[in-house]
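Page 42, continued from yesterday. The earlier attempt failed because a stray header line got pasted into the input along with the sequence. Redoing it now with the clean sequence only.
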Amino acid sequence: MLSEGLRESIARHSDAPAMLSEDGQTISYARMGDWITSFSARLAQLGVGKGHRVVPLVDNTALRICLWFAIWRRGGDVVMVERVESLIDADVEYDHVIAFADQPKIGDANWHVLDDSWRGLTVAPDDAPIAGNMVFGTSGSTGRPKFMSVSAEVWYAMVKMFNAAALEPAGHTLITFPTSSTGHFFSAMRTFDMGYGLTFWTGDAKATLSAAKDF
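This time it went through. Structure tokens are written below.
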């Protein structure tokens, strides 16, 4: 469901803006689709597959979102955190981390640098419409930090239900939730499902609101 839904949005809104990245790039739905396919192919080369827990840690929101869908397309589980240390502290197992070259390597998992080798790949092996889980942090009822795992398909089904029941379309969206939160994912998927565009918090309120207004 998730893969088919995203492909439908990309095909239907290919030239429309999907995301305004923090670096000022306006990324169309078609370009987002190309990145997801290429990232999926690169993940296959790296041996990422079904059941593997992957931490997309790159500090660029647009690229991180594309990595979500590439990981799910491979059947892997996306671990939603801002810091690897939070997983280590909670004794949560994970298999791969994807980061930029200037981000310090932490922990013993397979560490992959997102660079130019991830771009321009046109074939994604085992590109079946499958999806893994979302692993996310929550304090739960005890107030103690813990992590939960829920199928990405379940989250997307909730998005579809919410959009179907909405009285008005979402429109272009400014997301200020942390990238690692379920609120961020839900807002992003709701917007993509309806063919609108996203912009993100840039760290400065004036700059963020100005970019969102222009977008």
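Notes: The mean pLDDT is 83.
Reminder to self: strip header lines before submitting.
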